[in-house]
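Annotators were shown the component list below and the corresponding predicted structure, then asked to write short factual statements about the assembly.
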Amino acid sequence: MPFPIDHDMHCHSCLSSCSSDPAQSAQAILDHAKAHGYTLQCITDHLWDNLVPGASGWYAPQDVEHVKKNLPLPKDDQVRMVFGCETEFLGGSRLGLDPRHYDDFDFIVIPPNHFHMKNFVRPDTYDTEEKIADLFVRRLEEISNLDLPWRKVGIAHMVCGLIFKEGDQYRVYELIDEARFRAVMRKFARLGAGIEINLSSFWPDWKAHEDAMLRLYRLAKEEGCKFYLASDAHHPRELELVPGLAPGVVEALGLTEADRFILE
Ligand SMILES: [Zn+2]
Ligand SMILES: [Zn+2]
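Structure shown to annotators:
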């Protein structure tokens, strides 16, 4: 069976500061999902938990109470609406979500590469493609050492232009150490985490960099990882990224239904 294009497990509502778009309501997100025959739609607003000290100025207002303003999510008998979050990871054991709040979310997206947040997520001494590639793998390794409810955890945007905005993201992907990357993907597969195919990262011209864009996904697949689709939409038009781009990416990766991450 083909890999189903019937879900979007990472998207933002108007509650995320980088959206603030009144048109990006939970109901509008559900309406889009329903129109495309989805079975599952997750809303994952940016989150820094009020129980965790050290929020940046940008994150501070985006706490648990804030993202819960979307609750209760609109219900539908065709689309399962899931309340999630996209938290933050600063390295070591510094996650932007406290274990006391794990049960408040049905899906937890962890970004390993929000490296545009200099001197918060990325020390600015990491300033070359080689150093960024090393930092990225280390962050994945550190995330894999956390004690998380793994079966409802997604590793966000494995490729993402934010990894090195002032440099060459494609070069970074090529430089990532294969043995270390394979080992950490094997661990995510064993733990049961999902690996995100973030279609925002594939827009507009992934085919011009196909080998670099797909390298990490191919390695993850070989190590047994399961995958889910995500628009990472902040505005209604971006919800179209899943139906628009996912079929081509899924085909290029040779994914089938057996490769799909299932949220219990
Ligand atoms: Zn992100
Ligand atoms: Zn996001």
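Statements collected:
1. The domain at 7-259 is CATH 3.20.20.140 (TIM Barrel).
2. Residues 5 and 247 are 7 Å apart (CA to CA).
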